[in-house]
C-alpha cells in the first residue's frame, strides 16, 4: 500500500456537499409513491392535508436542529456514540452501536428492495413483481453500491451530487407542471382548491396519524451525527446546510402535493399505489414510463448515501475498542472497507430472510427508541450542566416536541398492531450485552480472531489509519 498520503478519514466535505447529502437523506421514495397516507387520514380534506405537510416540516426542523446540537458538540463521525457515552455510560453507547449494525443493514436492505421493485415494475405492468427476481436484483444493486462506496469519497461525491440534481429536477418538473395547470384555470384543475376546507374535518386521532405519515417523509435530518467528522468546519457548515435544505424540501413537498391534487382527484390519489406514476400517466401519458426509472434513480442515491454513512459507526466502534480491530482499518482510498463489507453482508441476509414491510416497521420502531434517549440526553445536559459553554444550543422546547413525536412512533405501532416481533426487536438490542460483558467489560481476547485479522489485512490490502492531527 502506498504510504505517500495519510490513510485516514479526512474533512473533505463542505457546504455544497453537506446540503446535497441532507437533501438525499430526506427526499426518499415517499414523496413519489405514498403521499396518499396524509390525505387519507385528513379525511380527503385538501386544505388540512396541505397544512399537515407544512406542520410536519416544522416538526422535522425541530428534530434536525436537536441532532445538530449533538453533531456540533461532538464534531466527529458517530457523534451520537460519544454523546450517549458521556451522559448514559459506555454500556448504553455500546448497545447503540450494536443496534446500528442491524439498523444500518436493515435500512440498506429496505432501500435495495425498493430500488429493485421500481426498476423491474415497468416489465410487469399488469401484475406485482415476483419475489425471486426482485431479491436477486436487490442483492446485485447492494453489492454494486458497496463496491462504489469502498472506492472512496470521490466516487460517492460526484454520484451523490448528480443524483441529487436529478431528484430535485424531477420534483421541480412535477411542481412547475402543477403551477402551469393552475394558471390555466381549468375548472377541473382549480375546483379542489377553491373550497379546500369544505370536506369533512378529521378527528384528533386521524389528524395525529396524518402527522406521523407526513413526518415519515421528512425523516433523515439526523444524518450529520454519522458523518460530522468528515465535514469542513462542522460548527458553521451544519447549521447552514440545515437552513438551506429543509426550507427547500418544504417548498418542493408542498408544490408537489399541490401538483398531484391539481391533476388527480383525492379519490384517485387514494386508489393509487404509486401516485407519481398515476400523475405522469394523466398529465403526460407518453412519458409515464419514465417515472419508475426516476424513482429508481432517487432510490439509488439514497442507497449509496446510506451505505456511506452507516459504515462510519462500525468504524468508530472498532476505533473505541468496542468492535474487533479489523473494522478499524482503511483501504488505499481511505474508505472503511471492512465496515462496508460487514454492512453489505448483513444487508444481504436481511434481503434474503425478511420482507420489505417488516423491515420498515422494525427499523423505525428501533430508531425512535434511540431518538428518545438522545433527546433525554440533551435535556439531562441542560439540567446537569446549565453553564456548559457549547457552540450551539437548541431551543429547549424542540427536544420536548421531538420526544412527543418519537413516543408516538413507538406507541402507535404497539397499539394498532401489537406483534410479538417487537419484543424480539427489544431482545435483539439487549443481546448486545452477551458480547459487551465478556469481550469489552472483562476484555477477553480471541487469539484465533487476531490471527485472522492479520490474514484479512493482507488479503484486502487494508491497514490501521494514521493518527489524526486533530
List the helices and strands and how they pair.
Blueprint: H1 15-26, H2 30-33, H3 36-41, H4 46-73, H5 79-88, H6 90-120, H7 131-150, H8 153-184, H9 187-194, H10 204-217, H11 224-227, H12 234-263, H13 266-270, H14 275-283, H15 290-319, H16 337-353, H17 356-384, H18 397-416, H19 421-430, H20 433-441, H21 447-460
Helix pairs in contact: 1-8, 1-12, 4-10, 4-12, 4-18, 5-6, 5-17, 6-7, 6-15, 6-16, 6-17, 7-15, 7-16, 8-12, 8-15, 15-16, 17-18
Q: Top keywords for this entry?
A:
Amino acid/polyamine transporter I; 470 residues; mainly alpha; 21 helices; 73% helix; globular
What this model shows, in words?
The protein has 470 residues and is mainly α. It has a single domain (15-463), classed as Amino acid/polyamine transporter I, CATH 1.20.1740. Helix content is 73%, strand content 0%. It has 21 helices and no strands. It has helices spanning 15-26, 30-33, 36-41, 46-73, 79-88, 90-120, 131-150, 153-184, 187-194, 204-217, 224-227, 234-263, 266-270, 275-283, 290-319, 337-353, 356-384, 397-416, 421-430, 433-441, 447-460. Helix 4 (46-73) crosses helix 18 (397-416), helix 5 crosses helix 17 (356-384) and helix 6 (90-120) runs antiparallel to helix 17. The longest helix has 32 residues, at 153-184. It starts with 14 loop residues before the first helix and ends in a 10-residue tail after the last helix. It is a multi-pass membrane protein. Its main location: membrane. It is found in: Apical cell membrane.
Amino acid at each position: 500500500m502506498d504510504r505517500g498520503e495519510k490513510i485516514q478519514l479526512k474533512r473533505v466535505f463542505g457546504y455544497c456537499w453537506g446540503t446535497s447529502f441532507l437533501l438525499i437523506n430526506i427526499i426518499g421514495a415517499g414523496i413519489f409513491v405514498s403521499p396518499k397516507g396524509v390525505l387519507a387520514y385528513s379525511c380527503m380534506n385538501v386544505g388540512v392535508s396541505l397544512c399537515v405537510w407544512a406542520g410536519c416540516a416544522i416538526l422535522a426542523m425541530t428534530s434536525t436542529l436537536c441532532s445538530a446540537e449533538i453533531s456540533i458538540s461532538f464534531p466527529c463521525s458517530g457523534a451520537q456514540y460519544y454523546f450517549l457515552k458521556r451522559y448514559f455510560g459506555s454500556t448504553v453507547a455500546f448497545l447503540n452501536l450494536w443496534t446500528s449494525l442491524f439498523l444500518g443493514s436493515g435500512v440498506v436492505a429496505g432501500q435495495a428492495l425498493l430500488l429493485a421493485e421500481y426498476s423491474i415494475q415497468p416489465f410487469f405492468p399488469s401484475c406485482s413483481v415476483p419475489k425471486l427476481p426482485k431479491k436477486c436484483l436487490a442483492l446485485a444493486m447492494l453489492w454494486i453500491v458497496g463496491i462504489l462506496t469502498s472506492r472512496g469519497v470521490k466516487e460517492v461525491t460526484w454520484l451523490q451530487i448528480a443524483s441529487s440534481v436529478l431528484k430535485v429536477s424531477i420534483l421541480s418538473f412535477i411542481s412547475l407542471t402543477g403551477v402551469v395547470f393552475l394558471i390555466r384555470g381549468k375548472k377541473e384543475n382549480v375546483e379542489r382548491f377553491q373550497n379546500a376546507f369544505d370536506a369533512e374535518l378529521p378527528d384528533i386521532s386521524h389528524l395525529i396519524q396524518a402527522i406521523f405519515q407526513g413526518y415519515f417523509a421528512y425523516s433523515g435530518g439526523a444524518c450529520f451525527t454519522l458523518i460530522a467528522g468528515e465535514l469542513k468546519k462542522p460548527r458553521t457548515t451544519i447549521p447552514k446546510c440545515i437552513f438551506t435544505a429543509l426550507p427547500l424540501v418544504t417548498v418542493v413537498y408542498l408544490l408537489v402535493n399541490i401538483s398531484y391534487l391539481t391533476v388527480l382527484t383525492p379519490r384517485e390519489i387514494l386508489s393509487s399505489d404509486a401516485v407519481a406514476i398515476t400523475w405522469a400517466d394523466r398529465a403526460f401519458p407518453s412519458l409515464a414510463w419514465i417515472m419508475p426509472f426516476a424513482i429508481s434513480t432517487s432510490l439509488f442515491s439514497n442507497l449509496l448515501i446510506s451505505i456511506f454513512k452507516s459504515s462510519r459507526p462500525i468504524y468508530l466502534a472498532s476505533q473505541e475498542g468496542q468492535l474487533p480491530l479489523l473494522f478499524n482499518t482503511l483501504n488505499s482510498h481511505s474508505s472503511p472497507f471492512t465496515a462496508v463489507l460487514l454492512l453489505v453482508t448483513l444487508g444481504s441476509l436481511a434481503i434474503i430472510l425478511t420482507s420489505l414491510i417488516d423491515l420498515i416497521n422494525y427499523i423505525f420502531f428501533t430508531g425512535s427508541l434511540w431518538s428518545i434517549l438522545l433527546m433525554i440526553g440533551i435535556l439531562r445536559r441542560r439540567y446537569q450542566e446549565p453553564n456548559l459553554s457549547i457552540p450551539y444550543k437548541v431551543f429547549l422546547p424542540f427536544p420536548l416536541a421531538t420526544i412527543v413525536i418519537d413516543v408516538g412512533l413507538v406507541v402507535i405501532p404497539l397499539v394498532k398492531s401489537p406483534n410479538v416481533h417487537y419484543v424480539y426487536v427489544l431482545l435483539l438490542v439487549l443481546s448486545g450485552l452477551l458480547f459487551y460483558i465478556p469481550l469489552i467489560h472483562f476484555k477477553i481476547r480471541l487469539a484465533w480472531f487476531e490471527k485472522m485479522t492479520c490474514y484479512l489485512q493482507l488479503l484486502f490490502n487494508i491497514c490501521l489509519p494514521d493518527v489524526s492531527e486533530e
